[in-house]
Design goal:
Layout lengths: L11 H5 L16 H19 L12 H12 L7 H5 L3 E3 L6 E3 L5 E4 L5 E3 L5 E6 L3 E3 L1 H12 L2 E2 L1 H16 L3 E10 H4 L10 E8 H4 L1 H10 L4
Bound molecules: guanosine-5'-triphosphate and zinc ion.
Length: about 220
């Protein structure tokens, strides 16, 4: 669930509401680290609006720096999460030795070169593994995708990190991850190829070594 960085009614940021006027803080106000980050990022967005020639004081933009800062904190919330906290209660001993595939997982990330989104159109991430006496809660696979997606990324690293996190969590016989994304930095600017999509994969263990296992995964996880 999205954590509201600013839902404490006693927060100086709430009291100030405009939040750009640091002088409005009372002397005894202490800010949490998140509040400090929100404050700093808000003034960065305020500056950015001025630099593009906008007037941050016009009505429609009054709250924009703070909204944009909150949005950026949400887009990058993966930095505050770690795999152990997310999966540790959902690893189960199970004598299952058939392939498990979760597919059509949506993904949203930010390109680390341009800070613009890349994302899957409808169904764009497939994750499969061959268990080795342990299985992982299915939702945790989607949560792992979120943890690494909500960071500044390149698609290749994102794909590999998802595979490695599952390998580390349950030590399966193999893992496969296929990701298909549209990069807005190639759509809205730069090359401006609106229909281009990028597919990346990461195969570990038997998924890499055994072509039949890999094919089974690619068939089961076929992006629809
Ligand atoms: N391999 C990889 N490249 C990416 C990813 N996201 C963006 N890029 C690329 O990063 C490259 C950055 O290249 P530069 O030449 O430094 O930047 P640029 O001048 O903005 O490049 P153009 O996008 O071609 O205009 C571009 O080719 C982007 O398409 C990604 O996830 N993986
Ligand atoms: Zn980019």
């Amino acid at each position: 669930m999205e954590e509201n960085v600013n839902d404490d009614p006693e927060s100086p940021i709430v009291r100030k509401s405009g939040i750009l006027d640091v002088n409005a803080l009372r002397e005894d106000d202490t800010l949490t680290i998140r509040e400090q980050r929100l404050l700093t990022m808000t003034s960065c967005y305020h500056e950015l609006l001025e630099q593009i020639g906008e007037d941050p004081k016009r009505q429609g933009l009054l709250k924009t720096p703070k909204r944009a800062a909150q949005a950026m904190l949400f887009f990058t919330k993966g930095y505050e999460q770690n795999i152990q906290d997310v999966v540790s209660d959902a690893i189960f001993d199970e004598e299952c030795d058939e392939m498990v595939v979760v597919k059509d997982i949506d993904i949203f990330s930010l390109c680390e070169h341009h800070l613009v989104p890349f994302f899957g159109k409808a169904s764009n991430v497939s994750v499969g593994y061959l268990p080795n006496k342990r299985v992982i809660g299915l939702s945790k696979i989607a949560r792992i995708v979120e943890i690494f997606g909500r960071r500044l990324q390149v698609q290749e690293r994102l794909t590999r990190q998802i595979a490695e996190a599952i390998a580390e969590a349950i030590n399966p016989r193999g893992v496969g991850v296929v990701v298909e994304c549209v990069h807005m930095c190639m759509v809205m600017r730069g090359a401006q190829k609106i229909n281009s999509k990028t597919t990346t994969s990461s195969m570990l263990g038997v998924f890499r070594e055994d072509s039949k296992t890999r094919e089974e995964f690619l068939t089961l996880g076929k992006l629809s």
